[in-house]
Design brief:
globular, Head decoration protein, Head_decoration_D, mainly beta, 5-stranded antiparallel β-sheet, 3-stranded mixed β-sheet
């Protein structure tokens, strides 16, 4: 049986017009699915998946990856939803084993950017 990967932007409920919610960024350090909650590294400004135990900036939610990207062999350009959007929680990719408190902190950080995380499959 094949499992379908998340489609680009599938997690989006709404976003600002004229691509105002989208920013071209540099992604590093792995292969990530659409809807992955991302953190931004302080040292170089690149983005990687949220790591709640991190200490280099990626412990803070900075946006949501729009589409799948494989940056495991080197940095890649990608689109990040980082402003004025509504996203569906059930379709986001959170770190394995994230605690309720850490997820709440990430949701709060996204909300500060105008990204509202909605529960369920609205």
């Amino acid at each position: 049986m094949k499992t379908e990967q998340a489609r680009a932007g599938e997690f989006l409920l709404s976003e600002a017009e004229s691509d105002r919610s989208r920013t071209q960024v540099t992604v590093t350090g792995g292969s990530y699915e659409a809807g992955t909650v991302m953190g931004q590294l302080t040292a170089d400004g690149k983005f990687t998946d949220l790591k709640t135990s991190g200490t280099d900036g990626n412990q803070n939610a900075a946006g949501v990856l729009y589409s799948r990207v494989d940056a495991s062999a080197g940095d890649m350009q990608a689109v990040l939803i980082d402003l004025d959007a509504q996203v569906i929680d059930d379709l986001l990719v959170w770190p394995d084993g994230i605690t309720a408190a850490k997820k709440d902190a990430a949701v709060t950080a996204l909300l500060a950017k105008g990204i509202k995380v909605r529960s369920g499959a609205i």
